[in-house]
Design a protein that fits this description.
alpha/beta; 6% strand; 4-stranded mixed β-sheet; 30 helices; 54% helix; 10 strands
Amino acid sequence: MQHEAVDSTSAGADDVMGTMDDDFQWESVPDDLRDNDTFMLAVRDIVGSHPYDFSIDVINIYTLDTSTYIHSASTIETPAEALVLSGYLGATPHSPTIAISLSTLELYRRLRLRKPSLSVEAFTKVLCDLYHWPYRRRYRTALADAFDVYLTIHRNIDVQVLKTLGRDSESWRVLNACPPCTYELKDEPELVFRRMIVFDGNNSLSRMAPLGGRQVGDTRIFNSDYYLEPDYINAHASQSNTLSSDDETINPTSQTHAGQDPELTNTSPATSACTDNWKAAAADAKKKSWGIFEETGIFASACRHGLVLWIADMVRSGELFKYPLAIVGKALETLGSRLLVGYDVGCKLAITIASSSLAQKFDDAEYRMCVDAFHGYTHSYACQDKNHPNVIKGMGIEDLATMERIFSSSNQLAAVTRYASAYNRRVSIDSFFKQWDEDKYLNLGNMLYKNYVQACQIIEEQGTAIREAKISLSISDDDLKMWSTEQSQYLATSGQEAEWDVHAVVYVELLQKLREARATSETASAMFLNATPMNYEFIIPTSTSSSYSTNLSQTRRLETRRRQASQRYDSILQEVVALELKMGVTRRWEPTDREYLETLKYMSQREYHRALDNLQWLVVLRLFELHKLNISQTGYRMRTHIAKSLQTRCKAIQNAVKSYNAAALALEPPAPTLDWSKVSHYNFLEEFVLLRETRQDIRSRRWAEPASLRIERAHEEIQRCHVESQRLHTAIVDEEVHFTRVILEANNASDPICGALEEFCQRRRRINAHILARLQDLYSLASFTGSTTSGVRKNAPDDALVNSEHQSAEDDENDDCAGLEEDDAIAGEVGGLLNYISELP
């Protein structure tokens, strides 16, 4: 074939082009082979190890180019390298036929971080629309493959950046990602709980299992410091023996009966059993559907500020206790002592932990379980009185509903994880939570500001009313504590019957049964005797006629009935005689005797009192829930809406109303009956007129007046905000010093990671500048009484070095980052804010 030079301006998409040199002279491809894809790919493979120029089909959302010419330098060995240096990424590592621009892939990555439900197919269709192409699966496959490689490159770069920054240890993220939780300072006030965490399960991020025994093609394993591995989780499975099966789900749906709640008879704070009688939240059909999923969802944990700690895949199961136990075990290993742990059924989990191998460590570390505010109102009030966030000292105004907010956002991922491979599913989940944590870190200053303002408002608005009430009613803080104890005791015993002469009641009941049995026996005997023929003669029957057999059968039935009635009468008579001997009754009570009438009067009211006590307990429970939610004083329309909700879910109250009405009508004279719609609209105890008829009239109890622990919790929140704001301030100061030193060292060493490192630090500095600006807003509040300067972290490696670095950070930032103009601007912005905040009074 004839050698000829190549005109790069006329190169086609399918031509194999090359540069002219002394060693390699390329020949033109014959026309009949130009359209032969197999031949062209084979040629490209042969020359792939040599430098050459080529054209390739491309997708670029910014330029809408359909092809581009790639120039390969002599130092480049593969087309993949040449493509990347030209701003493209091939869909395949060898002999790519189509490439996606890096800017397009980055745009899709950013869109996915902000809109997780945006699938590869959807984005491909957008690209096809912009190019005016009909959608073809080829483009979707190419984009997916290139995007997979692009994410891998990003992760590898992130690993190198974190290693350079010294943040690559196994638990660094959990121990440092949230400075308000973890960046403890010297000489700071001691908090009741060093850290608050919460966990919960979610079934949205499930993944279909392979059908028909098919093998999975993508066998890659994705490793992430977010995930707890199955082996670690299963090691805690044997500890979750309090849950016998998947039927014991974690989300309560109904309220247990007062008389059936073990909490009422057990005063131990760790023995709440609110879920014992709850029905499984998932229907049988749903539980069976778990078989079609390999992972049925995730079980995740986070700190009170919303930064995620650990995630566990729920594999072919519901929300078993092995998942929270594994996270509690991990927290004991990693997070230290004095943690408050919130969970939907924290009361039940506390029992499980107490009977597990974690019990001793849990107690030694002074951990405490509780329920979050959202699910807490579905627990019995006896449980709420111990485990609800509003009543726990040191909680502040935290509601521990963090996981509900996280899952509300992560549910968007469900559309792209359901049919993904195990590897790609974890990639999507890991990417989502990394972005989530970055957003929550950005919001830390705003969260502390808003919490502080809210706590001050509670103290200002409710504190004034409480102070005036204490003065006008002549009550003290000790009285409030005493009433709180009295309230707990009342709600723990409400519905229990008052003491009475039980023997007298049983004796009268037996006398009533004896009269009934005697009447039944006499009736049965009379019917048997009346069946005797008038001309009765004792003869031996010689006939087997049908009439004789019928008469004999009827006679036997009557005789059997007479004998059974007589035996029942004799049995009751024996009990009556035995009880009379025990009670010393010398003459059997008659219906006209005074003792009999008094006992009968109590018995006639007994069922009424029982029905009324039960109804009172249920209504008081709901009223306290409404007052805790601060919605009992809302308008008519909202109260009507609440009434409709109660009618839907409070079947227990409706049944209690029916039982009460039946007992009320049995009284002499009859008591007034109740209508369900009236009960559901009761707003406070004074409106429950029936309470006047109960043996425990609580309307006059001082604790029944609306009093709140919110003020005490608000003061705790202010103290925690003081501590956490200084921690966050100090962490930013220390991080700025650290960034400056590491960037200088990397530049001096000509580290290839410098560019990525500087980009990471630049982004982080901008976020820190935003946080510092919000902290300045907090410090500027007239009510703020905390420190406005940074502190010194506990267990710092060298206090003198740290302090000197703090002092020199603001003076030497520009010298340390010489040549990095944009980075200098960000560093200057952070340094300026630090200077301004440090000079605040």
